[in-house]
Every structure is written in structure tokens, then in C-alpha cells.
Specification:
The chain is mainly β. The chain has one helix at residues 238-243; strands at 2-8, 14-21, 27-31, 36-43, 49-51, 72-73, 79-80, 84-87, 90-93, 102-103, 116-120, 124-131, 142-150, 155-164, 168-169, 173-174, 192-195, 197-203, 209-215, 227-228, 247-252, 260-266, 272-278, 282-286, 296-297, 303-304, 311-315, 330-331, 337-347. The strands form eight sheets. The chain has a nine-stranded antiparallel sheet with strand order 11-12-13-14-29-23-22-17-20, with no helix packed on it. Strands 1-2-3-4-5 form a five-stranded antiparallel sheet, with no helix packed on it. A five-stranded antiparallel sheet has the order 19-18-21-24-27. The longest helix has 6 residues, at 238-243.
């Protein structure tokens, strides 16, 4: 475990980075500001070290971090339509920070706050955060733990644990952007993606699911066979035109609660392949459509480009709390909730 003081937040709190590693050659750097993933280093097919996730060189850029690079998004990932929901007969109004909707829990999110380190070893670290009742306008005092572990099989395992004193929403995700050619290698659209899903959640023009599950067959949303993202991302298809490309939730063909293979991405040049495993029912594929082209300066001073990285966000379906037919992201009072997502890397 390598711990390094990086700087301070606006309140004068020390911000440190932590590097964890496994015997397979994988290294991950994180920080206690936001429990954020900063770097993911894996060997390519020739044994060269490649950092496969986007991020910033300067700490100060993480204080805004509009793209949510590497963020641990809690308590509620993705969008809630109309920025409101009803739970146990009571309506809650949330921050309106995405058109008329709530995105990633709202303003002043927990991924822009200090977390505590509760455990650290060479290959694992646990961060904790205690969300106060009505913080971000969500009910309940909620204790949240997120543990990052690098396994000897070159996996980044993320375990989330939450407890609350009131019924509330808990729908966590990790918002890392992956480019398996390297974070500074340009756009990721020639990388090959497969998704274990035959249906996606149809949305309106503001990316809010309407409750309908649509078959991917015969549409550009079909990733049941591996294909380059570039093939159909700019198709004349309303769902893609409204979102500027892929930014959609896929209903995974897995059993909720059982850790299963959800998706994969592969770069033919580096030979690096990433597999995504989760026990959650959905996964948002976001192709970085709103990364500003060559205006955003990333690690090593490299300008990033539009679609320079791809997020694979395991989750309950967006807006599920307002659609009773969807599996519900409800954390019951006094009942611990756990969920796990794994990013597994290999190269050949």
C-alpha cells in the first residue's frame, strides 16, 4: 500500500492517494476525496503497463469533475425522472440538475466529499461515508462502505455495503471511463463490446425510461454478438439521436443477486480485454458522448476527445423508483444491503 498526500479540499482537509496492487501485475490508484478511482494499470499482450481509465492530472479538476471520472456514485446513480419519487406514501423532491431530472443524486454529491479510510492492505482498501438524513434530499441516516480489491487474477472488485435507519434509495455505481488502448489513445469507438442482454429500457428524449423494455434484435442496441462501438453509434435511430450516442441501460440476462458476467470490451491493438461482472439487474453503457472534444485536459497533460472512454455502470434501472414494474432500489431500514461489481482484465 502506497499512500501519498496529494493536497487539500476547500475546507482544508488533507486528500491522499492510495495505490493497491495484486500479483498479476495490476495496480489501481484511488483517493479518499469521493472514494474515486484515479488510475487502473494492467499489462497488455506484450507485458507493457497501460493505464486504461480516464482522469485528471490536477487534483483541483476533481472538485468539479463534470464527467464523473472514476466516481463512486451514491446514494443514487443515473436519472430519476422529474427529480422526485414517492416512498411509503411520502413524496420527496430532489435536486434538478439534468434538465427537469435528477442525475447521480444531485448537486454537491457525495463523490465530491471526503470519505474515511477504515481498512487498508496491499491489495485492498475500504472507504466509509455516513450520509445524514435528507442529505441530498434523500431520507435516512445511511452508513456506506465501499471496498476496492485488486485480486491476483487482475480483477478490480468493488463491494458496496449500506445500512439505513429509514427506508431510502440505494443504487450505487462506479463511473470510471475505460479505454483499453490507454487513457490517452484517442477515442474508444473501435473497441469491441459485448453485452449479456436482449432488452434495453426505452427512454424519452431526456433519457428517462418510460417502463418499456425493447428487444435489441434488429436495432443498433444489439450487442449480443461482439461488435465495434463505431459500427452503429451514429445510426438514424431515435434512442441514439436523443442521447448523442450510446447512453442506455441494458436489462441484463442474469439472476439478480447472483454475481454473473454482464459485458465485455476488447482492444485488438493492446490485446486487453475487460469483463464486467455484477449482481445488479442493469448496466448503463455510456460512450462518453459529452466529453468535450480536445478541450478537456487529462492525465499527463493529454487532451481527451469526445468518446475517449466508455463507462459500464452496473445499477438498478434508471428511474426504477418511479416504475413499480422494475426491480426496486430500496434500502429497507435496519436491513443491510450488499452488492458487488468486478472489472476483470486479461490480455492476449
Amino acid at each position: 500500500m502506497n499512500k501519498t498526500l496529494w493536497g487539500t479540499d476547500k475546507f482544508g482537509n488533507d486528500i491522499s492517494t492510495y495505490e493497491i496492487s495484486g500479483k498479476g501485475g495490476m495496480k489501481v490508484k484511488l483517493m479518499d476525496f469521493g472514494a474515486t478511482v484515479l488510475e487502473i494499470h494492467v499489462p497488455d499482450k506484450n507485458g507493457n503497463d497501460v493505464d486504461v481509465t480516464l482522469g485528471y492530472e490536477k487534483l483541483e479538476d476533481y472538485f468539479t469533475n463534470d464527467p464523473y471520472f472514476g466516481c463512486c456514485v451514491v446514494p443514487s446513480a443515473n436519472r430519476i425522472g422529474g427529480a422526485k419519487f414517492t416512498l411509503n406514501g411520502k413524496e420527496y423532491s430532489l435536486d434538478v440538475n439534468d434538465g427537469e431530472n435528477n442525475l447521480h443524486s444531485g448537486f454537491d454529491s457525495i463523490c465530491h466529499k471526503m470519505w474515511k479510510v477504515t481498512e487498508e492492505q496491499d491489495n485492498t482498501i475500504t472507504f466509509s461515508y455516513n450520509k445524514k438524513d435528507m442529505e441530498l434530499k434523500f431520507p435516512g441516516n445511511v452508513s456506506i462502505l465501499v471496498t476496492y480489491t485488486v485480486t491476483d487474477d487482475n480483477e478490480l472488485r468493488i463491494d458496496y455495503v449500506a445500512n439505513s435507519d429509514e427506508d431510502t434509495i440505494f443504487n450505487p455505481t462506479n463511473h470510471s471511463y475505460f479505454n483499453l488502448g490507454g487513457h490517452d489513445s484517442g477515442d474508444a469507438m473501435n473497441q469491441l463490446v459485448w453485452i449479456n442482454s436482449k432488452k434495453f429500457t426505452e427512454t424519452d428524449s431526456h433519457s428517462i425510461p418510460n417502463g418499456k423494455l425493447v428487444d435489441v434484435a434488429g436495432t443498433p442496441m444489439d450487442f449480443t454478438e461482439e461488435k465495434p462501438l463505431a459500427d452503429e453509434i451514429d445510426s438514424d435511430y431515435d434512442q441514439l439521436k436523443w442521447a448523442g450516442g450510446y447512453d442506455h441501460n441494458f436489462a441484463l440476462d442474469i439472476v439478480e443477486g447472483e454475481l454473473s458476467l454482464a459485458a465485455s470490451m476488447r482492444d485488438v491493438n493492446t490485446g486487453i480485454k475487460m469483463e464486467v461482472l455484477t449482481d445488479l439487474p442493469g448496466m448503463q453503457l455510456y460512450a462518453g458522448n459529452y466529453i468535450p472534444d480536445k478541450e478537456l485536459i487529462g492525465k499527463s497533460g493529454k487532451p481527451y476527445v469526445r468518446r475517449g472512454g466508455v463507462a459500464f455502470e452496473s445499477q438498478y434501472f434508471p428511474n426504477a423508483i418511479n416504475i413499480p414494474e422494475f426491480s426496486q432500489p430500496v434500502l429497507k431500514a435496519g436491513i443491510e444491503k450488499k452488492t458487488t461489481t468486478i472489472y476483470r482484465f486479461s490480455a492476449n
